[in-house]
Amino acid sequence: MATDDLSDLNALIEMMAKLPGLGPRSARRAVLHLIKKRDTQMQPLSRMLTHVAETARACLNCGNISTLEVCSICASEKRANGQICVVEEVSDLWAMERSGMFGGRYHVLGGTLSPLDDIGPEALRMPRLKDRITSEAVQEVILALNATVDGQTTAHYIAGELAHTGVAMTTLAQGVPIGGELDYLDDGTISAALSARKEMPR
Amino acid sequence: MATDDLSDLNALIEMMAKLPGLGPRSARRAVLHLIKKRDTQMQPLSRMLTHVAETARACLNCGNISTLEVCSICASEKRANGQICVVEEVSDLWAMERSGMFGGRYHVLGGTLSPLDDIGPEALRMPRLKDRITSEAVQEVILALNATVDGQTTAHYIAGELAHTGVAMTTLAQGVPIGGELDYLDDGTISAALSARKEMPR
Fold first, then answer.
1. Do the domain assignments include residue B191?
2. How far is B137 from chain A, CA to nearest CA, in Å?
3. B138 and B199 in one domain?
């Protein structure tokens, strides 16, 4: 593989191997697969990748990925229901959208507070969130951060920062996931589910 | 995700999900990762993908993937040692090259004989292999096909086709892989290793 005419191929394999979920071995397989399907898969993929690399950007309002300056969720009047759901990453926003249960808008922090990594409130788009609470007449902020230490710390920080605005603040319920078996759940989840137990409907 | 400005993103995710080893979920992660690293990873990857899609082709002589008409292995006089190693796929050629133990040239069949799938001797580049035996003064053909039923059937077919040329024909040894534990090996491998047992060096 140290031959000259393969250096581009090797460079491509190395780049593919940097993708999450792929390693050197699966990157080789993926590249060979693509070259075999050059017309039906490789060329469409390279064109679309180039196109998205040129056009995808963060929505100026909420931080969602969009090909427009303001994403379609922020642009839609239907989504202006007075609710903002605060999430860590765009992937969390997509997960919420897949559930199809949320009709409001989002605010993507782009991470969690991390003084050691120099990630402060500005990096998390906090000033913009405060502006939006007045400009979009928000009544409820749903803090849908991950149930990790970092996520919950950040949620508490945001709750403190927004306390003076008088906006209602909620978080996602914690408990047993749908389909979850108690035997396979960690102690923390069982404790949380027990503390937050609800009366059975009669 | 049904919003208009995301259709390109979704198309890209669908294309990535078709790669071997990736599914819808890991394709989403990979695309988000790329968009986050637009300048350092996404743009170089899209450029290299376009470049390779335009330049990669099958070597006219052996079927290896190359950016030249004749791959560097076929072009190298050093590799003309009278040996041709016949492999099923380019990935097998790469695996042989990684071992660094083979100094001859290759012949990539591009699959195995499969009458049901309409893969006959011509599709496997057999005529070209016969030509090469004379034109490259080949003394030994190493049949390095996979140790599967299809691979071995194809190996026997090739051996029959080349019998009249008088060229020496060998196959890879079968046995216990290096580092292999007997307890985890299948019966077929153990049987093959036992039949092909060798005297201990003294």
1. yes
2. 24
3. no
CATH label of the domain that carries residue B24: 1.10.8
For A38, the closest chain B residue by CA position comes to B53
Cα separation values, A196 from A176, A182, A193, B181, Å: 10, 15, 5, 51
Q: Are B66 and A5 in contact (CB under 8 A)?
A: yes
Interchain contact, A52 vs B29, CB within 8 Å: no
User: Number of helices and strands (H, E) in chain B?
Assistant: 8, 6
Does A39 reside within a domain? Answer: yes
* Enclosing domain of residue A181: 173-202
Instruction: Sort out which chain B residues have CB atoms less than 8 A from A42's CB and list them.
Output: 49, 52-53
Q: What percent of chain A has pLDDT over 90?
A: 63
| Residue of A30, A45, A94 lying closest to B21 (CB–CB) | A30
Letter string b/e over residues A90-112, b meaning 16 or more CB atoms within 10 A of that residue's CB: bbbbbebbeeeebebbbbbbbeb
Hey, what are A149's tokens?
A: 């230490």
DSSP state of A65: E
B71 domain residue, yes or no: no
Note whether B174 and B146 are within 8 A (CB): no
Minimal Cβ distance to B67: which of A5, A19, A98: A5
Question: Would you call B20 and A29 a contact, using CB atoms and an 8 Å cutoff?
Answer: yes
Same structural domain, B167 and B181: no
Same domain, residue pair A143 and A87: yes
Structure tokens at B130: 């016969």
Q: Looking at the structure, tell me whether residues B150 and B180 fall in a common domain.
A: no
Would the CB atoms of A50 and B50 count as touching at under 8 Å? yes
Q: Indicate yes or no: CB of A18 within 8 angstroms of CB of B41.
A: yes
ipTM over 0.90: no
Residue B98: burial class (beta carbons within 10 Å; 0-12, 13-18, 19+): exposed
Number of domains in chain A: 3
pLDDT digits (tens, 9 = 90+) for A79-115: 999 999 999 999 999 999 988 889 999 999 998 988 7
